[in-house]
Amino acid sequence: MTPALLVATALAGLAASLAGAVTPDRLRIRVSTSLTIGACGCALIAGINILHSGHPAVVHTTALMPLSGFSLALDRFGALFVVISAVVGICALVFRLGYIGHGLGSRTASCILPLFVTTLLLVPAASNVTTFLFLWELMAITSLLLVLTDHAHRGEVQVAAQWYAVMTQLGAAALILGLVLLATRTGSQSFAVIALRSAHLPTWVRSTAFVLALVGFGSKAGAVPLHVWLPRAHPEAPGPVSALMSAAMVNLGVYGIVRVGMGLLGGGPTWWWLLVMFLGALSAMFGSLHSATSRDLKRLLAYSTTDNVGLMLLGVGASGLFASTGHRALAVVALVAALLHVVFHAVFKGSLFLSASSVQQATGSTDLDGLGGLLQRMPVSGPIFLVGGLAIAALPPFCGFVSEWLLLQSMLHGLPSSDVAIAVAMPIGVGVLALTGGLTAFTFAKAIGIGLLGLPRTDGAERATEVRRPMWVGAGLLALLCLVFGVAPFLVIPAVVDAAGVVTRFHSAGALTHGWQIGLPGVPGMLAPGLLALGLLVCTGLVALARGLVRRSPVRLTEAWGCGRELQTARMEYTATSFGEPLTRVFEDVLNPSRDIDASHIAESRYYTEAAVIHTSLEDAFERHLYRPADRGFQRWGALARRVPNGSVHRYLAFGLVALIIVLVVLA
Amino acid sequence: MNSSWSYVSIAAVSLLQVMLVLLGGPLLLGLMRKVRCRMEGRVGPPIRQPLLDLRKLAGRERTRPEHTSWVFPLAPVVLVATTLVVAAIAPLLATNPAFGWSADLFAVVFLFLLGSVSLALGALDTGTAFGGMGASRAMTIGALAEPALLVAILALSVPAHSSNLPAIITRSLAHPAWLATPQRVLALVAFVIVIIAESGRLPVDNPSTHLELTMIHEAMVLEYAGPDLALVKLAESMRLVVLLTLLADLFIPWGIATAPGPSHLAVALVATVGKVALLGVALAAFEVTVAKLRLFRVPELLAGAFVLAILAVLSALVVP
Fold this sequence. Notes:
Chain A contains 25 helices and 7 strands.
């Protein structure tokens, strides 16, 4: 039954793609989107079924691909990611039914989007090297084409797509090398056989394969320093696509690191996992700092994805570290925390990206410095963004709080061990987690406060109205999940524990949930998120009631205090740039802010300025110090190489002769 | 947990704690103001003055700037509610309040953060320059205080093997020698710095300033009036008293009730009030002697606290 559902997923996806290509304009979006939602539904049922029963679903056929055959085997660990992709997919596609613009309605896009969604659903099921690489590349290419949908209207789209293309192909190259190395050395393509035989491989082969996989998957996950494509591609991609990329595709990078590092290679030496933790810490700090100082809403969300991937890698690294030093039970807890963060991140980041796209459609802009006052103008999408923002800032009673708490607990309980690596890594990990936690709260206080509250700063924001129903339904479903999982995390934790048990091959971690509470086995103290939520609700109600009883008169509307000025205008408001300014100054060394003031003076006296314009910008340090020099180097090399073929036939003949002589010398 | 605690006594502890925090907060502020005034050679208002102020404010009309959304009136309510939840579940008077098993230090931190964020959102909702300025500064300081706070918590949690508050306190009562170890002292200093920053006291923020350029907290609450302002002021004082009580219980735990019964609770009440009043007087005396730091020097102070906290964790591993 479950294998049939996997086949149905693939077939429905292909049918949707075909429908997108051939159906008439009027029906195109509706037909292809419904079929894609059908594919997500099949995958969702299959995934839940496997998570529940634990029996892997296997599909194998040699008809599609010669030699290796097309082979899918979905276990609990993969099923978790399939379920995440399916849920995000359904919500993003429902959203798409109401979404206009960005060229997503075109024939090409309608043909490609279903393929992209289908690969998101099938990549975690791939069970041999060729199938995996085929699906992985299909995912990369389809997502690249979807980023490009609006290229005709905006120049930045092409630049963003170039960055994405280069980074994703670099990652793919590393991945192919790593997996092919494993396949040739173990003599089999099948993941199951590689996992059995990899323990006997020489250490250098294992380590090389792991580092190559880390680079490949890290570039897809958006880990620093391979993150540069994220803040460029996400703002340019159409809304539902950026939600799918940030909430579903990025997860697969984390999936790959865990699958290869723990599944195929069965864990490894301490330094692998310290490397993963280091990358995680770097990504978390760098991402949160940049998202705290970004003024474009989608760029902010993209950097925050890097930040959250950093937290997931921190958990994965801690898990590997515990496993490599023999703390099996803690390894499971840390991995559960990381995977739980994957689940919750998908939920809140999906709702944030979708509602940010609603804002973009309603106001025509994602520049926070031009938004404001949207909570009253968009009575449904506004609260959805608010919920997502509070959830990502790890505030109770929403879901981000639960996964961060568990991550903190796993690090805390690792500390008393005698291992030096752990003793040094864990406090720093907690420090990083805390700093990113604080910065995330800052970021989303800014995004919500500047974007949704206060006075509208432009005409676009002034005229904004609520978006069409499918859009807020899609985003709202995810926001609802933020609250449900935050109050009742026991709905997902057992499934995540089972999924983590598959890769760590260790099942007796003890239950993490006891009814409504979560806690670590054998440790006093637990967390009861449902209870906290109830307490907050009751106290809020009581306080509001008390305030109402004390003074029953209606609330009088007044003017805000403006230092005696008569009229309050939006020009007096703080903007996102000014909100982030103190932080920019504190972290000046990392952020490298540049500012440029153009002042024109009046003719009579240089002491009076007529007009002044200030330009401020923040450039990504890695882009500036790593990628720009590399780019310049390649350009120079290219220029040099271009000098060799100058169009002269004589020279080409000489090349031919020299090459022939060299070949003869080598052969002789 | 201890089976000798009946549901009635557990509920009584929580109720008593909430009452203590509600009443004790304004009184503590009054006491601190009195101490300050006396040290500066003034008579000062009576200690119950903050309570009288609250009553006066509660009787006034509610106002709300135009353009604000539902966030503005909701923010002070959420702020008070988060503090109430902490006051109910944290072991302030006894090691076993209602739901004490869920009184996790990290959870307490995130509850306080929820209150801070909601107040910042309320400030931004007014759409004035002051609201934005106060929110931006308060969130910056909050973000930078977070690492020092959580790592200091980690230092306290390592020997107890738990971040559960009752577990930490019970453990330190059982091992009094452990209180004088280097990691406790380092963590204590980090904690004190963070508490000063979080509750907006000198030298980080001046609670009695009304000079626009130096305001942090006051700039955020400029638009609140009447009962709403009363809630904000109440929450501010409640936070201070909760933080100081936690400090007292974590570092000088003697006197906290470990067994049920009115006599134990009475002792705990006296001990806690005494300890917190002492801490408040010390804080007020300290405030007289320092000037407010420049805003951009505050991160250095907090970075110092973070380093102390990291040292505390490392020494906790060396000296178990």
